[in-house]
Amino acid sequence: MRKYIIKRLIQSLIILFFVAFIIYALMRCLPTSYVEAMARQKSMQPGSKSYEEWLAQLSAMYNMDGSIVSGFFQWLGQMLRGEFGDSWKWTVPVTQKFHETVWLSFVMGLISFILELIIAIPLGVIAATKQYSKTDYAISVIALAGISLPTFFFASLLKLVFSVKLGWFDLYGLVGRNYDLLSPMGQFMDKANHLVMPIITLVVISMGGLMRYTRTNMLEVLSADYIRTARAKGLSERKVIYHHAFRNTLIPIVTIVGGSLPGLFSGALITETLFAIPGIGFASYQSMVSGDIPFSMFFMVFTAILTLLGNLIADILYAVVDPRVRIA
Predict the structure, then answer these.
(1) In this structure, which of 1, 91, 199, 284 has its CB flanked by the most CB atoms within 10 Å?
(2) Which pTM value belongs to this model?
(3) How many angstroms from the chain centroid is the CA of residue 52?
(4) Which residues contact 175 (CB under 8 A, 6 or more apart)?
(5) Are 151 and 269 in contact (CB under 8 A)?
(6) Helices 94-129 & 184-222 angle (0-180, nearest 10)
(7) Which of 283, 269, 282 is closest to 92 using CA atoms?
(8) What confidence score (pLDDT) does residue 319 get?
């Protein structure tokens, strides 16, 4: 197992190098650029230099005057020294802006992920054990609705019903108008109130796929020979389902759980934008639109690292879930 982990880590570093280069090349080829926008803005000031002169000066200042390859290795050297630079869009250090926004997205992602597991997996098991029943059809309809509903449509529907019609929640934002006048507990509850609809949106949109995935794998396991043997031995149906069948269903589910690690930190761009939640997803979108290469590079490489780490954790968890899985 130790040799396997070391081998996978080396492979991950090689993959990360090429992924980072591709991301940097794409960022350099974006049609919009913060440097170009700033040069255009400065050139319009009275008595200013021309656009071309400002562009050359700012490109040299931000190390954009060289080729993509030389610029990438220059960025890579700074990254290895822990120098991530300042965000062009937010005018603060990249790590500071990242720290200010990532934890809000992490809390939202973690809560929605836990709720997704608690709701989707049991419903998927129930649907499989009651195949072709009314319960199975009802759960399947809910799952298909969650898969099919666009995020913007469901979020807008929640806002229409619970904000406009009922007035239970604010339409957008993280805090209310009277936030500064509240006690610490009141401020906490105010933020929690504003996160209810975004979290519900994340849960409903994401749980459908996991629910169907659990049902499909559970049906496959329930038709196996060892399940029929367990029933023939006189074991209770509950023990057959939750001790023998469900344990073997966990192996493919582990893949989804491991792959969900980046989502806990990468935020939900559409949901955060619709509800005006200042998380990492919304901040990264604004940075990419404005051509903020330092922040966008840091965020996307961080997401790539989490993706590779999530895949490695999923592979290791195979052996934890199923003792038959061993890597020599």
Answers:
(1) 284
(2) 0.78
(3) 39
(4) 187, 190, 191, 194
(5) no
(6) 40
(7) 283
(8) 65
Output phi, psi for 244, to 5 deg: -95, -50
DSSP assignment of 7-32 equals HHHHHHHHHHHHHHHHHHHHHHT-S-
Closest CA to 89 of 300, 288, 287: 287
If you count DSSP H runs as helices and E runs as strands, how many of each does the chain have, helices first?
15, 0
Q: Which of 253, 176, 180 is nearest to 210 (CA)?
A: 253
Beta carbons of 279 and 105 less than 8 angstroms apart? yes
List of the chain residues with pLDDT < 70: 1, 31-33, 61-63, 258-259, 261, 263, 265-267, 318-328
| Alpha-carbon span 317 to 312, nearest angstrom | 9
Question: Could you tell me which residues come within 8 angstroms of residue 252 by beta carbon, excluding any fewer than 6 positions away?
Answer: 213, 217
Neighbours of 72 (CB within 10 A): 21
265: alpha, beta or left, given left = phi > 0 and alpha = psi -120 to 50? Answer: alpha
How far apart are the C-alpha atoms of 59 and 14, rounded to whole Å? Answer: 30
User: Looking only at Cα atoms, what is the longest distance across the chain?
Assistant: 92
What is 98-321's CATH superfamily?
Answer: MetI-like (1.10.3720.10)
Tell me how far apart the alpha carbons of residues 105 and 111 are, in angstroms, rounded to a whole number: 10
What was the pLDDT predicted at 17?
93
Cα gap 236→89, rounded to integer Å: 62
User: Where in the chain are the domains?
Assistant: 2-80, 98-321
324's tokens = 């038959």
Tokens 């809390």 belong to 107
Lookup result for tokens 């007035």: 167
| pLDDT value at residue 15 | 92
In terms of phi and psi (left: phi > 0; alpha: psi -120 to 50; beta: otherwise), the region of 114 is alpha
